[in-house]
């Protein structure tokens, strides 16, 4: 096979382009600017008085190109649909030709089979077997031809559907183009009208601004002067001084009210002493949450407290209802959050005689404890550093730091990564302040996780101990469980 190559190296004749002499001199260093006029005549642009600048020519040609691009896009769309219609017509024509050829093939196969049948009767032996095999092959070809015809019919139906779809798409495209053109014309008209209205409004604004400019400046100066006068009258520094004075007065009033309440309690205490005469015992301590109350003798003839029977009660200030505090049988009792707003009473029995001591008034709440608890409630799990002092009623010698988790569903006590106890809120769980414990009673808490497992833990401060009690009772209440204190049989801190 011969390979044909193109070589233009020697086809150009050197004499076709004559060389230019180096002595030739041109009048200008740029190509002359000509313009083709009528009858293809060259006209010098310098003679034309209407010569456009380069900027105007570029702007005009850019606008023409954009418009031409829009027209070309519509034309391309129409040409694509026309090509699709032509392809559909071509496919339809090919399908028709295939159908005609298929009919001719059926006729030929039928004639061939008839000829073989007639030949079969004339031959015998091996030739007859060959004829029968040929007949089978012809029948198989007929079956294949029939299958092919079915496929052609299906293709023809699909081609018809495609042609109808392309035709409908072409019509829809034409409608869309017409609608877009109409919409564009309407938008152009609306834009022109809007531009005209804006121009009229600007002209009107210029006329009115020229007339009212001086008047506006005078009014603005008057407003500025009035604002300065108002600012001078208000004097914000005086207002701040008044607010500071009011804050100081509120603070002094709160201190006076606390002092007045303290004096009232001392007065009530002195009245009880006068009424009871020579009373052997008295209550000592601050009657508020976060402190502790102690029973102490006030005369030399007072019996020893170790030989007396003691029981503490809560008394409602309204109805005088008395409620026994289970396990509170020691000379020291630290009020817990449940005692706030109630009067505490201690009954001392010695040799058949009973002495009753009560607080001067209801137990006062701890300052800021409510807001502290509300801030802790927003957390999912609250942790407190504690020290375990007793476990199952037996003193715990170790003073290592443990962590008490008070959660929304359970309470957990752990040391490092080791869990000591973890129990969900239940009716068998008990939690309250320690009913005894000496001077540290206000910082200690009794927790019975379940029957047979109890702890006495000490917190870093009275505030944390009371917050832990309030949080645990609140979360348990959300679980429809009331956490109570221990009964008389439960082990207590001493």
Automatic annotation (TrEMBL):
<keyword id="KW-0175">Coiled coil</keyword>
<dbReference type="InterPro" id="IPR032012">
    <property type="entry name" value="SCAB-ABD"/>
</dbReference>
<feature type="domain" description="Stomatal closure-related actin-binding protein Ig">
    <location>
        <begin position="281"/>
        <end position="378"/>
    </location>
</feature>
<dbReference type="Pfam" id="PF16711">
    <property type="entry name" value="SCAB-ABD"/>
</dbReference>
<protein>
    <recommendedName>
        <fullName>Stomatal closure-related actin-binding protein 1</fullName>
    </recommendedName>
</protein>
<dbReference type="InterPro" id="IPR041144">
    <property type="entry name" value="SCAB-PH"/>
</dbReference>
<dbReference type="GO" id="GO:0010119">
    <property type="term" value="P:regulation of stomatal movement"/>
</dbReference>
<dbReference type="GO" id="GO:0007015">
    <property type="term" value="P:actin filament organization"/>
</dbReference>
<dbReference type="GO" id="GO:0003779">
    <property type="term" value="F:actin binding"/>
</dbReference>
<dbReference type="InterPro" id="IPR039640">
    <property type="entry name" value="SCAB"/>
</dbReference>
<dbReference type="InterPro" id="IPR032015">
    <property type="entry name" value="SCAB-Ig"/>
</dbReference>
<dbReference type="Pfam" id="PF17684">
    <property type="entry name" value="SCAB-PH"/>
</dbReference>
<feature type="domain" description="Stomatal closure-related actin-binding protein actin-binding">
    <location>
        <begin position="54"/>
        <end position="96"/>
    </location>
</feature>
<feature type="domain" description="Stomatal closure-related actin-binding protein PH">
    <location>
        <begin position="381"/>
        <end position="488"/>
    </location>
</feature>
<dbReference type="Pfam" id="PF16709">
    <property type="entry name" value="SCAB-Ig"/>
</dbReference>
<feature type="domain" description="Stomatal closure-related actin-binding protein coiled-coil">
    <location>
        <begin position="100"/>
        <end position="267"/>
    </location>
</feature>
<dbReference type="Pfam" id="PF16712">
    <property type="entry name" value="SCAB_CC"/>
</dbReference>
<feature type="coiled-coil region">
    <location>
        <begin position="159"/>
        <end position="259"/>
    </location>
</feature>
<dbReference type="InterPro" id="IPR032009">
    <property type="entry name" value="SCAB_CC"/>
</dbReference>
């Amino acid at each position: 096979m011969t390979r044909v190559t193109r070589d233009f190296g020697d086809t150009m004749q050197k004499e076709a382009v004559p060389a230019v002499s180096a002595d030739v001199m041109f009048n200008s260093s740029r190509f002359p600017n000509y313009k083709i006029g009528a009858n293809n005549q060259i006209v010098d642009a310098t003679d034309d008085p209407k010569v456009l600048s380069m900027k105007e020519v570029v702007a005009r040609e850019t606008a023409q190109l954009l418009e031409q691009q829009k027209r070309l896009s519509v034309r391309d769309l129409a040409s694509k649909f026309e090509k699709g219609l032509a392809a559909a017509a071509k496919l339809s024509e090919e399908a028709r030709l295939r159908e005609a050829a298929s009919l001719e093939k059926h006729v030929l196969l039928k004639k061939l089979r008839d000829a073989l049948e007639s030949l079969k009767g004339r031959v015998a032996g091996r030739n007859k077997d060959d004829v029968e095999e040929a007949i089978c092959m012809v029948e198989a070809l007929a079956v294949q031809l029939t299958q092919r015809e079915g496929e052609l019919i299906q293709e023809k139906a699909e081609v018809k559907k495609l042609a109808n779809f392309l035709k409908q798409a072409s019509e829809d495209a034409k409608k869309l183009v017409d609608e877009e053109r109409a919409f564009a014309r309407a938008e152009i008209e609306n834009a022109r009208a809007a531009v005209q209205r804006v121009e009229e409004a600007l002209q009107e604004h210029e006329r009115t601004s020229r007339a009212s400019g001086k008047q506006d400046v005078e009014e603005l100066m008057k407003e500025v002067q009035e604002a300065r006068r108002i600012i001078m009258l208000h004097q914000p520094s005086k207002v701040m001084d008044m607010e500071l004075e009011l804050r100081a007065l509120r603070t002094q009033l709160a201190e006076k009210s606390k002092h007045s309440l303290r004096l009232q309690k001392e007065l009530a205490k002195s009245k009880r002493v006068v009424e009871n005469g020579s009373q052997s015992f008295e209550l000592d301590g601050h009657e508020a949450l976060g402190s502790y109350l102690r029973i102490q003798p006030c005369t030399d003839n007072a019996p020893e407290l170790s030989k007396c029977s003691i029981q503490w009660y809560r008394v409602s200030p309204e109805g005088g209802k008395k409620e026994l505090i289970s396990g509170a049988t020691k000379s020291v009792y630290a009020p817990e959050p449940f005692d706030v707003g109630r009067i505490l009473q201690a009954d001392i029995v010695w040799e058949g005689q009973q002495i009753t001591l009560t607080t001067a008034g209801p137990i006062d709440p701890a300052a800021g404890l409510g807001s502290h608890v509300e801030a802790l409630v927003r957390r999912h799990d609250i942790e407190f550093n504690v020290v375990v002092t007793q476990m199952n009623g037996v003193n715990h010698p170790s003073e290592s730091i443990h962590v008490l988790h008070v959660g929304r569903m359970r309470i957990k006590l752990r040391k490092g990564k080791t869990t000591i106890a973890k129990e969900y809120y239940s009716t068998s769980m008990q939690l309250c302040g320690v009913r005894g414990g000496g001077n540290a009673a206000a910082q200690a808490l009794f927790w019975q996780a379940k029957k047979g497992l109890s702890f006495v833990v000490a917190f870093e401060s009275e505030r944390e101990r009371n917050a832990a009690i309030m949080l645990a009772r609140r979360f348990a209440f959300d679980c429809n469980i009331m956490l109570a204190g221990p009964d008389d049989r439960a082990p207590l801190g001493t």
